[in-house]
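User: Modeling request: complex.
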Amino acid sequence: MSLLSNYLSVRKFSETICEPLQIEDYVVQPIEDVSPPKWHLGHTAWFFETFILKPNLIAYREFDPNYNYVFNSYYETVGARVIRTDRGNLSRPTVEDVYKYRAYVDEAMESFLCREPEESVKELLILGLNHEQQHQELLRYDIKYILGHNPLFPAYADEHIEQDLKVEDQVWLKVDAGVYEIGHEGNDFCFDNELGRHKVYLADFEISTSLVSNAEYLEFIEDKGYQDFKHWHAEAWDWVNTNKITAPLYWHFVDEEWLRYDLAGGLKPLKLEDAVTHISFYEAAAFASWKGMRLPTEFEWEIAAQKLDWGKLWEWTESSYLPYPGFSKAPGAIGEYNGKFMVSQKVLRGASVATSPNHKRLTYRNFFYPGLRWHYNGLRLSK
Amino acid sequence: MSLLSNYLSVRKFSETICEPLQIEDYVVQPIEDVSPPKWHLGHTAWFFETFILKPNLIAYREFDPNYNYVFNSYYETVGARVIRTDRGNLSRPTVEDVYKYRAYVDEAMESFLCREPEESVKELLILGLNHEQQHQELLRYDIKYILGHNPLFPAYADEHIEQDLKVEDQVWLKVDAGVYEIGHEGNDFCFDNELGRHKVYLADFEISTSLVSNAEYLEFIEDKGYQDFKHWHAEAWDWVNTNKITAPLYWHFVDEEWLRYDLAGGLKPLKLEDAVTHISFYEAAAFASWKGMRLPTEFEWEIAAQKLDWGKLWEWTESSYLPYPGFSKAPGAIGEYNGKFMVSQKVLRGASVATSPNHKRLTYRNFFYPGLRWHYNGLRLSK
Amino acid sequence: MSLLSNYLSVRKFSETICEPLQIEDYVVQPIEDVSPPKWHLGHTAWFFETFILKPNLIAYREFDPNYNYVFNSYYETVGARVIRTDRGNLSRPTVEDVYKYRAYVDEAMESFLCREPEESVKELLILGLNHEQQHQELLRYDIKYILGHNPLFPAYADEHIEQDLKVEDQVWLKVDAGVYEIGHEGNDFCFDNELGRHKVYLADFEISTSLVSNAEYLEFIEDKGYQDFKHWHAEAWDWVNTNKITAPLYWHFVDEEWLRYDLAGGLKPLKLEDAVTHISFYEAAAFASWKGMRLPTEFEWEIAAQKLDWGKLWEWTESSYLPYPGFSKAPGAIGEYNGKFMVSQKVLRGASVATSPNHKRLTYRNFFYPGLRWHYNGLRLSK
Amino acid sequence: MSLLSNYLSVRKFSETICEPLQIEDYVVQPIEDVSPPKWHLGHTAWFFETFILKPNLIAYREFDPNYNYVFNSYYETVGARVIRTDRGNLSRPTVEDVYKYRAYVDEAMESFLCREPEESVKELLILGLNHEQQHQELLRYDIKYILGHNPLFPAYADEHIEQDLKVEDQVWLKVDAGVYEIGHEGNDFCFDNELGRHKVYLADFEISTSLVSNAEYLEFIEDKGYQDFKHWHAEAWDWVNTNKITAPLYWHFVDEEWLRYDLAGGLKPLKLEDAVTHISFYEAAAFASWKGMRLPTEFEWEIAAQKLDWGKLWEWTESSYLPYPGFSKAPGAIGEYNGKFMVSQKVLRGASVATSPNHKRLTYRNFFYPGLRWHYNGLRLSK
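Assistant: Request completed. Predicted assembly structure:
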């Protein structure tokens, strides 16, 4: 696929995800972690405008100078930004304006991509596309949160990504102790945090071939797992009690039955055979402790996954998100991409049903704070 | 005007106010005090559905049972409600749905009003219309807040209510000491908090015939009034410092010049001859103290206003919002209307350019917490 | 009594109140409103040092220049102060140091008072003594809070001020409508907020000759008064729910019985015949509403109290704390005494068992925020 | 040394540390992380009473049943506890009571230790002594915080532990790549988190033989390191700005000079040749980034430290505090000791001048949240 057609196809996909939305759905920000869908659409356009068009297309005229202020996310290098909790207070630019902005940027990009760009720009462009794919996945999470927390429980679409989360039968895969190689290899795109390729020593371990199911997780709930501090980290126990957590996100106990919000609309009975999802690291670790097992490290995961079927849900690991040996940040704004988050977060490995096509990689390192759970995550046991 | 045509004209006016809005503007709630415009539109329809149609129109079928949950404001009698800070997180019902809801309720009301309702229902209906007019004024405040806090400073309309705020020349009106009568008299509609009519003793006082102007207020700013604790109540001084307040709401100091957000779009130079507005009680009291004067009480105001020109801006008074002698709450949900707010708030008297037609009364008692200032208020000196 | 002996007797009484304390009791600040006893002792000495000795005794040498920083309360005129929530973090100066400071100041005051001071200084001195008496009453509240919130429920003293709170039989006193005079008259000391003497018009009213008893208040509790929003102001209802309030402060429901902390140590059964105390204005108003009655205004109280027995507990009134007609602040730091608190607080009238001798006056206006209840307050019904 | 004499000497040392304190210093809790010294003294006694005496000494009579409530720290197994932020609100038990409690427990322990206890009790006892030594170090931190944040800057003692923090000349130690063994070995006491001994692969690295000095850190400050987001993690940058951090804890910029609080009393000029201390992980990492270097991992540290001089300050590492392979918690309350903190914290290695004698170990893993800095920590560069 040419760079241009790749560009156009990625850009189009963001809009496809938003197609089922009403204008109002694009605007709200029910919690700080969730961004309004129109913000994602604007921000990803802003990325190309700011890092590709403005520095490289001499005659390029900015769509609207105020948009820099509105659509910057966290690139301190680039200047003041709307603070994150304010995103949901902005009724303007309208959704229509944002789509015009995207079309404007895309048209300029089309002109720009008539000629083969130089290597460094091409790299930035590919980064921009991967960046947009990450926001596509966030769009999935955020749209679900917006609809799934509305008291009317509106539908996203009849056909949707959650229809195939069934868990396979469990087998234990054994991996032998030894020195293994970790991290991205080769010339394909990867994020800076997947480099450099390096050796780790792993002790013997066993890992489950399947994700934990709703049925298994329900046993934990029914065994009063949420009421027994023994299974929980100290800060997790505070989190459970402060937030009165008693089940995964989107679960509702109605008339003695567990229901969950369904993207096809309304609350539906839990599918016991599906993989459990929308749990925090705290819950994943508490469940594992209750089972007398543990989560794999990200290194164990990367080695074992070569022989596993993976990719329906991001899998919480025991590993903290830290730099690999020899890690170095790129200079300038792009250098803010990953390194500055390398404290206090946990690594998730794999991919999910919400991950965009061609955005899946064995060495991919996703990361979230341990108390978050609005993303499509799950849990695989190790021992 | 017949009850029906009165009903239809009031109902229509809420929609007229919202006509210049984009769909997105209907949805957001930038601060707790501001409600999304679509919420005002839904809530005022809900009032008629809940208090008139459901109890009195036998065959009436609720538009949507979930709307009770979404559009109740604070009537604890009527059941659970969306907590106030959550209103801006609701993308559904959509704006279109809300307009359908209004049309549905209006059609049912038209049928209902074919026959003359009994007296108690008529009273409730008139209360409902006054209630909607109060929300019309809140709509004005909230729309201004939403647009005036957007970094793009979008226009509401070319012609708008702030174009005639010019202040008259100041004269001091003297009022003699004596026993005066306060409160509503006669059979016209009034709120319960304007009753009962009662006597108060007033000492001699003088009151200005004009509101304080931007020019005068600017002197206070330039004399460092915001930096001198002497003029401020203790809790006001905390408010100034915690919120870093240095000027009225909507004022911006740009390139050595004071600008203010303009409903016609953008930031425009301050009109010095206009009445100062969008100040808190704290600021009004501090300004009066700096002048060596004071605010009138609501009783002084009500007596003096018989000889004053008033009504461009709600005027802060020194009075706290308390029950008049003999005040009693109506039974049921309607009784929650006023009495439960009679603590910690200050009274404002008069009316404003945002007040709906026919919703102005000498005895009207408006009330806000002393730190609020997004409403159209102002200040008249007394001594 | 001479000025000097009056001075010495007031000063001594502060120390008498603290006599039963352990050193540790002097230090802690369990909530923002409560100050450490050693702080009260230091602050009242600081008042005489700062306003009498430093300006008037030429050769006076400050005890310790840092004490100005530590013991100023809220006199912005006098400079930076330890912020209020930090008072309980200061282990130094020690209790012994504070007593030395008091002795040092008292010795200097003795020299100073050998000669009759000029009139303006005398006035300041009398203000200082009244100020210290106010802190004596606060000491009573704060010591009770410190001991009564300790899980060991230690004793203050076997004989104490709460032993005589029995309520008399209830009779209704009728007062006729008319114009009455309010406020302090004559040359005795009063606070600026009791001036100027002025006329008010009062409608007919009736007022109870007795305070509400624990027995009556218990009926309110048992009738589920704390669970019925109808009786509560809107902000009171939030207060009840946020703080999970179900009874007056210091009450504990243990083994199906209501107990209360006893200054003689431990938890003891409630005395049903005693006046109810340690309730907020919110609770007082809710109780009155449940009874179908109301609280008196401070003006009604001042007129009626001429024929009532009063003074065991400060009585919540319906009145907000506002300036009397013609009120003006004194210049300088002393002017910060009262006026700056005249917003958002409620007036209490009377006096309490914790009030110091000779510090009781018909026209005295005490004031607290409506949600506070650690002071000795109570409730008298009106209708 | 016999078990008993070891017991008595450890117990004595806690009291020796507190000897210079005034009673008031034992009581306060200026921030949540700091506990009142009397609480440490009581809590360490409670440990022996609860885990040794009550289960093993048949005739043992509890000193005071309420003390369990007051002195439990975080052992959920053992029952309700005073919530952590309330510790500074408790004036009782008094300091004298706490010393009596210690004497009572020590006497009972002396009787108990007349006979050789069985192995499992002996292990618990040794854990108790190590636990007390940890609290001895915390006492050092907390006492410094209490005195060093008092506006009078009182002295702890003329001779004190900070007098020998001079940094050596810097040399770079090279370590070759390879598989190394990590974790405690042998039969001596260690905490559960130092087990099990396991292999790690390390790439080549270099590590400084000396800690970073105040002089070097000052360069970072003067190069505006605290104002340049580039060096900081995203959450660190929020921390710097929210808390307005501009230098290590206890540093004050007075009259154009950097001073620091001195345990001998008052503020003294910074000793440039001393190791920098009282910095957060965030600051350590930002400094390293500014230098173009990094912090060592705890594994690199443990291998390199065999050839390094270490022990004046706890050294921040890049490693998160996670379980070693095969880690398992002890059953019961003792199992809450370490495992439940294994999320969101960073590892520090080494020991400090505040560490108690015989409480220093190459494999010791200390851990704190990345934003804390009241402990004696420092920084060693790696590359």
